[in-house]
Amino acid sequence: MPHGRAGAPGQGVHAHELALLTEELDHAHGSAGFVRLSGEPWVGKTRLALRLARAAAHRGWAVACGRAARDGTGRPFHALVDALDDQLAAADPAVLERLGPARLRVLAQVFPALGGSVPHGSVPHGPPEADVHAVARALRAVLEELAGRRGLLLVLDDAHRAGWEVAEFAEHLLRHPPDAPVLTVLVHRGSGPGAGRLASLAHPDGAVRHIPLRPLAREAAAALLPEGLAPLHRELVLRDAEGVPGLLRALSDGEPHDAAGVPHSSLELACGPSPLAPSAPALDLGALSPLARLAADAAAAAGDPFTVETVAHTAPLPLGLALRAVDELHSEGILVPDPRAGWSRFRRPAARALVHQAAGAAQRRAARERALAAPDAGGDTGGAVLALLETAGPPTAAQAALLESYARTTVFTQPARAERAARRAADRPGAPPGPHLLRCQALVLCGRPAQALTEYARLWPRREAAPPPATTERTERTDRTDRTDTAVWTEAAVWRARALRLLGARPQARRVLRAVSAGDRAAVPAAQAELAALLLESGRPARGAALGAARRAVRCAPQSDVAAYSHALALLAAAHAAQGAREAALEAAGEAGPLLSGLGPEEAAPVVEAWRWLGEAVADGDARRARQFFRHGFDLALHHGQGHLLGPFALGLARACLHSGEPAAAARHASFAAAEFDRLTAYDSAATARDLLEFIGRGPERNPENDFGIPLSTREREIAMLIGPGLTNKQIAARMNISIKTVETHLGRIFKKLGVRSRAEVVFRLSIPAAGFPPPDEECGPAARRPATVRSPAPGGHPPGSG
Questions:
Q1: What element of type H or E holds 595?
Q2: Nearest CA to 246 among 51, 67, 41?
């Protein structure tokens, strides 16, 4: 499918549904047909109906398209008048003559085009109330005349908004179908009172065909996106649009809101300031009445979920009008009921963010202030925090405490917003290190490790310069405070090491973790888990180090903390796999997998990386399962806006796809990984991703299995291609993030399958070029291409890793 604008006609959107509709055209030649086309807002119903109209016109059918009045104040039979009035105005006089004066007299009460076509004196002054049944009978005759032998397609859009008389007319057509090739298509929303009335249309012979229009699958949605989108922006659009073509179009036309390209969490779309770019085009809300549009703006300012009272207070509107407007938004499918009784929310969070962003800055601020003052928002702590994020000036002590508490609660699920909250809390003069360190953690999580290291370098001397207690006598309160401070700095050390690990500065990361006392590591299992992850990523053949750290992490993680315990088990599985102990790796992965799967998205947010280690644990023997693990972790990281994990997950996906024989998908994921590592300034990892991309790009002509008919596995082919540049087993292990023992095992299989005895014979046998992959650094793999030491631009040249 070619690339194009989202939802553009002719691009194959909803091709299956279009085929069903054209099939109904064929059937209507034998007997009149009736179709209901339903779906949520912006899913593409109107565009699909227009494509059907073009297809029908191309076949020689007469086409009549109309829609109900958008403001709900149209005249009776408005949709039918919109569709047929021009047809009647241009009709041959013979057609009007065949209809007869009685029918014309009835139709003249409805259709303006017939006001002068009725014999003089047959229509009284001031048209009386139309007889619905008489009009329906006359309209059936009109359809038969307009259809003739070629056929007529009648499309009534927004039928859920049409009056009851249109539903009566539809019922009449079902009971008395036209004696002509006529296909009637009612296009309507999938929910709401009007949709329920249309859904009740039925016929014992199954004459009504219902075609529900659903959001697009990911592959179809991706094919609609324009070329040139940044990889991260592309993934965010696919996630936020949820397959709805109208949202795809609106989201892809804008630019990422954050100048640094930091991903936003899905939860940020539901409330608070919109994370979308101001340049994003507004959604088509022309179907709404002015009253409903005002209520939609108020609901977007209030954020999900909200009550009608909040909308009334925010708009502001009388409660009765607010109820009517909210009912219209529900009938349009824009709002849906919230699980809490009496509360509502937007059907799609991205729609809420786009509606909120479309309002002016001053209007948004005024609406937000009114929403916070609403009775139901009085205890909304989160709402108060979001209001503080939009104000200027240093916060008070109470406000700073509120901001810090909010940031700590949301740091794993909304790291970009948590960073802003922690920054605001740290703006208070004399702020303690807590909010500063919390901001650094949020910076790492959302994918800005270099900036976090700069802040850590500035803050770390405060820990070293902390004065000792004034006296030897220590109160219980002092002990408790010291323990709290120790825990804060220990957690900060873990995240500082994480930032260094992301940037490839592994020796510095190890020094930071070594500075944490053994007692602190036992109290904080995350420190041992971070050390195990660091050793697994290290290029040196740390045979027992990673395994030992993973075992210590399992021992010190309380089993009551399912997230931490399953994370440690996943690390243990990956460490076993790195040593070639496949059975032990599968056993640990088999225990960790169900535990992680049983966690909800928010419970799993602190340990999203555990899915990466599960993927690494099974990658060597089960590429399909590894791909599932990597994909789940990638989606979870994207959902929570944890940008620091997107690159590693994408790289794992690329390798798993390559091993599964899907080079195109592997290249796509490797390209995304390279772009993400560049954004993180993790140049060593970016080089690894580009090496993999280059390897994939060599194509099937360099595939030993295709060229020579040799049944090498995908992993064996990868290792064989690395022999040519002269890499040692140790360097190959570092390149592929596997153990030397695993490399040796694969080499043994390669030698046996090729019938050779040396590495040189492998190179000759497969015609592998002698240059291609430069040998990696002995300790840090491809880090030799750039210095592994990450230095902070902080005054005095204090390196971040020298704490």
A1: helix 582-597
A2: 41
* Least confident range of 209-218, 532-541, 556-565: 532-541
**C-alpha triplet 342, 346, 347: angle, nearest 5°:** 110
**Gap between the Cα atoms of 185 and 210, Å rounded:** 10
Find how far residue 333's CA is from the centre of its chain. 20
Alpha carbons within 13 angstroms on the beta-carbon side of residue 569 total 19
Q: How far, in Å, are 34, 700, 719 from residue 708 at the CA level?
A: 60, 11, 17
Query: Is the bond preceding 429 in cis, omega lying within 30 degrees of 0?
Result: no
Mean pLDDT, all residues of the chain: 81
Q: Where are the alpha helices (DSSP H) in 503-561?
A: 506-514, 518-523, 525-537, 545-556
What pLDDT sits at residue 54? 95
Closest CA to 160 of 184, 136, 189: 189
Taking residues 38-43, report their average pLDDT. 92
For the chain, count helices (H), then strands (E): 38, 8
510: its two tokens = 């190890």
**Which pLDDT does position 343 carry in this prediction?**
93
Query: Which pLDDT tens digit goes with each residue over 85-123?
Result: 998 988 888 988 898 989 998 888 888 888 754 444 443
Q: Residue 255 contacts by C-beta under 8 Å, 6 or more apart in sequence?
A: 233, 277, 279
SS3 66: strand
pLDDT at 138: 92
Q: At a CB cut-off of 8 Å and minimum separation 6, what does 647 contact? A: 672, 673, 676, 677, 680, 682, 685, 689
Distance CA 502, CA 743 (A): 25
Write out the two tokens for 593: 């997998």
CB–CB of 573/589 below 8 Å? yes
Identity of residue 545: A
Cα separation, 404 vs 383, whole angstroms: 14
- Locate tokens 């590592």: which residue? 677
3 state SS for 19-61: HHHHHHHHHHCCCCEEEEEEECCCCCHHHHHHHHHHHHHHCCC
Element (H, E) at 183: strand 182-189
